[in-house]
Amino acid sequence: MQKKPQQASTAFEILSALAERIECELADTKSTESTHDNDGLLASIDTAYEAFDRALTTEMDAQHTASLARVRDYPDCSEAWFSFAEVQRRQGKLDDAQMALQRAVELAPSYSTALVSLAAVHRAQGNFDLAVACGERALLCSVDEANTHRELGNSLRAAGRLHEAERAYRTSLQLEDDPNTDVALGLLQVWQNQIPAALSSFDAAHQAAGSAQKLADSALPRIAHEADQVEYLRAQDLISAEFDDYAASLRALERNYRNPRQGQDVSDHGATTSAQSLHRFESVFHAGPSTTLSGAGVNPNLSTAKIQQDYLNAKPGMVCIDDFVTPQALQALRRYCHEAGVWKMGFPAGYIGAFLRDGFAPACLFQIAEELRLSLPNIFLDHRLLAAWAFKYDQRMLGINIHADPAVINVNFWITPDEANLDPSNGGLVVWDTAAPEDWSYADYNINVARMKRFIASSGAKAKRFAHRQNRAVIFNSALLHKTDTLNFKSGYENR
Known about the structure:
This protein is mainly alpha-helical. It folds into 3 domains: about 5-210, Serine Threonine Protein Phosphatase 5, Tetratricopeptide repeat (Alpha Horseshoe), CATH 1.25.40; about 215-280, no CATH class; about 305-325 and about 355-495, Jelly Rolls. The chain has 19 helices and 9 strands. Strand 2 (about 345) and strand 3 form a beta hairpin. Helix 7 (about 145-160) runs antiparallel to helix 8 (about 160-175) and helix 9 packs antiparallel against helix 10. About 40% of the residues are buried.
């Protein structure tokens, strides 16, 4: 196989790192009371992203050219067609990927990897019966492959054959522990109203994923947050004094990361700052409370008819809801976010996050999602919860940049108290009234910031700002471009 041009790959990596460094620098500048002009930094960010865009395009073009050349040189090689198909999938060209994969399995009828990919493509196209058929055919060729069983489970789940999907997931897990399979099984169990079982599956996913995570340059926000959280849990008598040394180790790590030139390394706090302490950093130290609510999760006094009509009239769909959940649900979510040791994902801009596979699976969240689906049927139709994520910020950082999501409907809501927000006019969400073009790939609408900015400028898209308010939700079409608004919050763990 022809190798990618080294220059393009190197440029891609360097420019990506450059953009991340500049964003971090800008975030640090925002955290001070400095009067320095940030325009230069902002211009640098734009320049870096434009260069990133060019490098990304160059690399994708190189991949396409190389895979196409191999198909032309070896038209009877199933692996060549498979490689070409995978490039088309990454670029969002599903029809081309389907054609190439079908050719691959014509040449090699027992090519299970190609059959699994073809099933995924059919699923993305909404052809669920074809996806199941491909998955079953792949299973005949590789019955001992965990991935094949998982992908068949995904197709069966999409086709509504839930009991069969569950069997496929469990078989996959018998063959191999994999957090992706645990998450898929957990979602299936949620849909079957098996909440305790679902929570167990998400916990298993967290355990499997957490052990594989490594400390990296983006770990500083995670280190600072974990130190805050350990100290908070100690103050609440939720963990024992054995964690005091661990908290001190984290503070030593934080100092070292923030001031590396002072010559203070993590060893200045003894043995607990060693690899053993870092391993502990990756582990779950407190599960956090997660119980189903005794009453309603979504506020029963909401005017559901008006909410649905406002969403449908917005064209594209977008609606803001205040007093979104009940006081009981808000309290439960706040407590879970404070106490659960699931915040293991750091981002270069400084915020941290947790996804389902990281263990972010409070039972009340699934209850809220299902109540919302049933109370707003004209918005959600038969779409169930498929992904959940949470982010924590503090006053020093930027938010999530412009992107769209590979979903149908987004529900964003905030649980941090209003008094924590130093600028009540901001701190929330910016949503543009224009969707990313349907022919864009995932990289185009979720990563390629420069291209999204150019599209917004050329399309005349208008931004709608939703300021942060505790217990405010914004429901919108997932294809709409959006980003986190300017952040200016108080310091302190409970203000994140």
